[in-house]
Amino acid sequence: AGCHGDEGQGASAMSLNNVEFLRTASDGFIWHAIEVGRSGTPMGSYAETLDANQINNLVKLIRSWEQ
User: How far is CA 62 from the centre of its chain?
Assistant: First the structure.
């Protein structure tokens, strides 16, 4: 929330509730970004702090912003 905002609107990082992002990013892409981070960005890996269920829940939350 500190980086992407409480509703994915973007704070210090990109907006995740962006229609174009949600239309083009697969669940696998989002999962991978959470799990291993994004090279060349401040987005770090959460593999050591989140389990598979928690990452899955985050992907579902991000997808809920499509509506």
Answer: 6
* d(C-alpha 60, C-alpha 41), whole Å: 23
For every residue of 36-54, which 3-state class applies, written as one string? HCCCCCCCCCCCCCCCHHH
Cα–Cα distance measured from residue 58 to residue 32, given in angstroms and rounded to the nearest whole number: 12
Can you tell me the distance from the alpha carbon of 17 to that of 8, in angstroms, rounded to the nearest whole number? 5
Environment class of 65 (CB within 10 Å of its CB; exposed 0-12, middle 13-18, buried 19+): middle
CA angle, 60 then 7 then 44, to 5°: 70
Record the tokens describing residue 3, joined without a space. 């980086």
For residue 13, the model assigns a pLDDT of 85
Which residues of the chain register pLDDT less than 70? Answer: none
